[in-house]
Specification:
The protein contains 18 helices and two strands. Helix 5 packs parallel to helix 15 and helix 6 packs across helix 7. The protein is globular, with a radius of gyration of 22 Å.
Length: 487
């Protein structure tokens, strides 16, 4: 059987009815899911890292470049999400257009986007918990708040290595239990946290704008050090690839298509609406943050917003912002773990992963065993992995997924031009081709070390596919049965 056999669209839609998830999400819930995932570690943590190490104050331009890549991919996601309103996101889209092997590759790649992404955010969540508790006079043991492989800067400025990042593990366990309880309960909790988070971002921009020091913008684009990616225009490109992690929320919206009440109408609203709102907030946030404190002060700071807030006379504002940021980061973890469990749900339903990943709880109607296994996997990353490494792995995984989705639109328009499309990507082939080029350019900007990590990760995934997935594929089994009947 061909490795590139595609799964018929009619079969995908028919099988969706056999594996019922609860359809309870409206357009407001979907926009909230998008914002819940978009505004998180990329804004509150990676912004400071990218400004200090790659772009300086020009980090605002990096957000614009990343937004362009996202918008191009977002249109393509919207077309697919209305054509194939099924859990699985880019994995399902690739299965329908490019075949099983490409679908497996993108599904495995999405583990980087969601599971490893959730680990990144949980590490940032831990840093803010430590800072917030310090403000209350509570000090956690350094051994229990950091990875052994990356130092964490304590509120007193001291950098320490730990044994295990226990707060990060704690939040992953709590969110996993909430997701098992039900999608409606999870969406309600997310909406509350998103409201708090957006309010805080707006307050930070409004208050911080009064205390900007113009000299912090000089030079706006720091001169390149002689190394690609270290400031200058190449630094802006490198930073765009790094903070691209901050934009993956609209992709997470597409994983919930099978739980949307009216996916053909509401998915484009959730995807494009959340992306547009967050892009404006991101650029304004970056401008204010680098105006409050010189970009060099963010180097090594896991909680850079706290560094920026310290430049204002409102000490009480810092504590409130940290508390609200914790709520915001919690919503990011929730959406990412939600998205990952739905990807595995779809892959398991196709036989490419064990059945345990698509087992639905009889009462809660959620893939609860998948949530439990993800809780274990993500907790291990959260406990021991350094944030810079997992953050960039997430970015390159996301960019790779976007390239595949944009290419899928070109293939689908050629192979199935007459399929109903409630939402159509504008200016095809220009938009998907530009989406491929811009996102590939940001992959290039992430450098060879991240390319190598991606290749090694994909090699591991291919070993699992040929060792298990290929032999258990339901599509392969059905086609072999058809051939036998034909004989």
């Amino acid at each position: 059987m061909s490795l590139f056999a595609t799964k018929p669209l009619e079969r995908i839609l028919a099988e969706a009815g056999e594996h019922t998830l609860r359809r309870t999400l409206g357009p407001g819930n979907l926009v909230a899911l998008g914002i819940g995932a978009i505004i998180g570690a990329g804004l509150f943590s990676l912004t400071g890292i990218a400004a200090a190490e790659y772009a300086g104050p020009a980090i605002a331009l990096s957000f614009v470049l990343a937004a362009i890549g996202c918008a191009l991919a977002g249109f393509c996601y919207s077309e697919f999400a209305t054509m194939i309103p099924i859990a699985g996101s880019a994995y399902t889209y690739a299965y329908a257009t490019m075949g099983e092997l490409i679908a497996w590759i993108i599904g495995w790649d999405l583990v980087l986007e969601y599971a490893v992404g959730a680990s990144t955010v949980s590490i940032s969540w831990s840093a803010y918990v430590v800072s917030f508790l310090h403000d209350l006079g509570i000090e956690l043991p350094p051994a229990l708040i950091a990875s052994p492989w990356q130092p964490v800067q304590l509120p007193n400025g001291q950098q320490v290595y730990g044994v295990i990042n226990l707060p990060a593990v704690f939040i992953v366990v709590v969110i996993s239990c909430l997701l098992i309880a039900g999608i409606k309960e999870s969406a309600t909790a997310n909406a509350i946290m998103v409201a708090i988070k957006v309010a805080v971002v707006v307050v930070f921009i409004a208050v911080g704008a009064w205390f900007i020091k113009p000299e912090n913008y000089t030079p706006f684009i720091p001169p390149n050090t002689g190394t690609f990616g270290e400031f200058g225009w190449s630094g802006i490109l490198k930073a765009a690839g790094v903070i691209f992690f901050a934009y993956i929320g609209f992709d997470a919206v597409s994983t919930a298509a099978q739980e949307a009440r009216n996916p053909q109408k509401d998915m484009p609203v959730g995807i494009i609406g959340s992306l547009a709102i967050c892009t404006v907030l991101y650029v304004l946030f970056a401008v204010v943050m680098t105006g409050l404190a010189h970009y060099t002060k963010f180097k090594g700071a896991a909680a850079p917003v706290a560094v920026a807030v310290a430049q204002t006379p409102y000490g009480w504002l810092g504590a409130l912002i940290k508390l609200a940021i914790l709520a915001g980061l919690t919503s990011v973890i929730l959406v990412m773990l939600l998205g990952q469990s739905r990807i595995f749900f779809s892959m398991s339903r196709d036989g490419l992963l064990p059945k345990v990943f698509s087992d639905i709880h009889p009462r809660f109607r959620t893939p609860w065993r998948s949530n439990l296994l993800l809780m274990l996997f993500v907790s291990l990353f959260s406990a021991f992995a350094p944030i810079s490494a997992v953050g960039q792995m997430t970015s390159i995984g996301t960019l790779f997924a976007f390239v595949i989705v944009c290419a899928g639109i070109l293939v689908m328009r050629k192979t199935q031009p007459d399929v109903p499309r409630p939402f159509r990507t504008p200016w095809v082939p220009v938009v998907p081709v530009l989406g491929i080029l811009v996102n590939a350019l940001m992959i290039y900007g992430l450098g060879w070390s991240n390319w190598l990590r991606l290749l090694l990760w994909l090699a591991l995934g291919l070993a699992i596919y040929f060792g298990y997935g290929r032999r258990h594929s339901l599509l392969t089994a059905s086609r072999q049965l058809q051939l036998q009947k034909g004989d």
